[in-house]
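Hi everyone,

Forwarding the result from last night's run.
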Amino acid sequence: MRSRAYLGSLKQRCGFLPASYRQTLPGAIWLHAVSVGEAMAAVEMVRQLRQCLPRSPVYVSVSTLAGYQTARQKRPDARVFYAPVDYVFAVRRVLRRLRPALVVVMETEIWPNLFRETKRMGAGLLMVNGRISDRAIARYASLRWFFGGVLEEVDLVLAQSEEMRQRFVRIGAPPDRVRVGGNLKYDFAAREAGPDSPVRRFVERVAPRAVWIAASTMAPAFAGDVDEDDAVIAAFGEVAAREPGLLLMLAPRKPEYFEAAARKLERAGVRFVRRSELRGEETVELPGALLLDSIGELSSLFGLADVVFMGGTLAARGGHNILEPAAAGRPVIAGPHMENFAEIAADFRAAGALVEVGDASGLAAAVIRMLADPAQAAALGARGRVCAQARQGATAVAARAARDVFADHVPRYRPAQPGFLFLWMFSRLWMWGGAFQRKRDLARRRSLEAPVISIGNLTAGGTGKTPAVLYVTEKLKEAGWKPGILTRGYGRHSPHRHEAVAAGAHVPVERSGDEPQIFLRAGVAPLGIGADRWQAGRLLQQEFGVNLLLLDDGFQHVRLERQVDIVLVDAFNPSGGGEALPLGRLREPLEGLARADIMVITRSDHGRLVESAERMLRRYNPRAPIFRAHAQPKEWVAVAGGETIAADALPFRRVAAFCGIGNPHSFWATLGALGYDMVDRLRFDDHHRYKPRELRFMAHQFRQAGAEAVVTTEKDMVNLGEDADRLLGPLPLYWLRIGVQVERENEFLEAIARRLRYSRKE
C-alpha cells in the first residue's frame, strides 16, 4: 500500500504539478516542510504568511507520505504537493509552475540545486526553524567547503537557538545572514478532539479510569537498541496490574510501523481496537488498548490523556517534540535521548516540567507514579504548559522576516531549454540594437516650444499608459494649461504621416489606430498622431495653440526633448521578467530607470509585488519620487444603444470576458474586484482586430459556459467592427470605461509642476 502511494507521488517529485497550480504572474510563496513535525509547525506559519502577504498564494511541499497526509488534513484549503527531487530539471519545472517570489525552507533541508535555481529565478530564499542535530554537525562541518557555497545562496537563516546559529556559521553560512529566530514548534496551538471525534466517542464508551498515550513510538536505531513498542507493551502489563481500568493509546510514529505494532499487541495478549476500524459501536474490555493507526490526529488527543510518554526518546532517535502534550497541560515522560530537542528539554528540566527515565525499565514506574498522584501530575502538566507558552512568537518573527525577504526580490521567468538559449541570443540583439538606436536618437534630439511630459514604461505590454495620460491631461487642464496629446498611432493606415485632430473628433480607426480612439472619445485634448512626435507636436501647436504636450508611450522616444519623464511600472510584473524582448518583456535595461523624474507603480491595488517594486526602483533611481496608482472602473457601456451603467451595477453576475490588451491580468483582476463571476475568458494579442468568425465562435463558447453577458475593454471595443453586438447575440455586450487614481495626488501633481518650473529656469 505504501509503495503504491509512493509511486503515485513520483509525478510530482519529478516536478509535474497539477495544472491548477500554474501561476501566470510572479509573487507566490513556496514553503517546504519535510514531514509530519514540520507540516504541523507550518500550519501557523501559513496562516501568518497569508495575513502579512494576502495577495500571494502559498504552496506547501513535503517529502514524506505522512507529511503529505498531515499537511492536507491540517490545512484542507492549502495547495500541497510532494517536493521535487533535487535535480535541476525537476526543480526548474516547479519554479516555472509556481513563479515564487519567496521560497521558505524549514529546519535543515539544504538542497544545492533548489537553492541555486531559486536565486537564478530571482526569488528570495529563507530558512526558518533552522537546526543541525548533534549527530549531523561533525559530518556537516567536515563538508564546510561544500555547504559554505550552498548557504551563500540563502538570504537569511533563522536558527532555533544561539547554539544552532553557531552551528550554521560553523558549516559555512555567512555570519551576517544567520540570526536566532526561535523555535516554531513552540507556537503550536493546543486543540482538543471535537465531540464528533471517533476516538473521543470511543473513550466515552469505554469509560477508562486512566488514559496513557504512548506517542510517536519508534523502532530501534541500530541492533541492540530499544524497540519502543516492545517497551511500552511490557510497561503496560505492569501498569495494568496496578490500574485495571487503564486504556493505552499506542501511536507509532510512522505508518509502516502500524502492522508490526498490531502483531506485537496480539502476541502479548493485549485486548485492542484499531483506530482505522472505529465505526461508532466498538469498545474494548479494560485494561485494553487503542492502536492509533492514523496520521495527523494525535495532537488533538493529548487532552484525553492522564499521562503521555513521548517516543523517540528511549530509542536512540534524538527525541520528538514534547511541546504538544505540554501545551495540553499533560505530564510528559521522556527517555534519555532528547538530543534534537536539547534546548526544549533543558527548559522543561529546569522548570520541573518533565519526568525523565534512564531506560525502558523505568517507564512503568514513572507512569504508575503519575497515575497514583493526580495532584502531582496536574502540577507538572501546568508547569509544562507554562514552558510551552513562554517562548512562543517564533512564527511571528519568521513571518516578518519572510515579508522583508519577499519585498527585496522581484522574480524572473526562465523558460525551459533549449528555448531559453535561443531567446537569450535574440534578447542580446534587442539590447544592442536598442542601445544603438538610443545613442543615434539622442544625437538627433529636437525640442518643441511647449514643454513636454512623457508618460511611458520600460516594458512591452500594458501598464495602464492610456488612462494615465488621460488622467494627467485632465488634471493639468484643470490647472489652467492648454494641453495636447502626442501618440504614435500603432497599426494606423493613413495617407498622412502626421496629423492633428480636434478633441472629440470622429476619425476612422484605420486612420488613427486603436489607442488614439480612446483619447479622441474622451474629448479632453486635441491629438497629434504620427511616428515623428516632433512633427506631430508642431502641428498641434500650429493648429490648436497648445502650450503643453503629453507624450504617450514616450520613454524610449528620446528623439523628442522632454521636461518631465514619468515612468509607469506594472505591479503585476515590475521587472518585466528581468530580460529584454523576446526572452523577457523589457524594452531596455532596468538601468534606464535612472532617467525617470517621477515613477508610478500602476495596478497597486491588485499587484503582489508593490513593495518589492518600490525597493527595486529605489536601487536604480534613488532620487525620483515614487507613487502608487490603481485602476478606477467608471461605467459599463452597452455596445448596442450606448446605455451606461455603473461599474458595479451590471444586471448580470455570470459574465464571459475577452480582451486583446498588453496585460489582460489587469482586466481579469478588475472584474474579480467588482464581484463578477467569470464563467469563461479569452485573451488575444495586443491590438487584435476581431474577425466575424472569431466573434461567432466566442458567442457559441460563452453560451455553452452559461454566461449571461459578454464584457470587454474600451480598446477592444474599438477593434470589434460594426456588427459585433449582432454576432455575439443574443448575449448582450458591454465594454468598461476605466480611469486611474494616483495616491497622494496633490504630491504627484506638485512633483510635475516642480519639474516644469525647474525646466523653465534652465
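DSSP finds 27 helices and 27 strands in the chain.

Cheers,
N.
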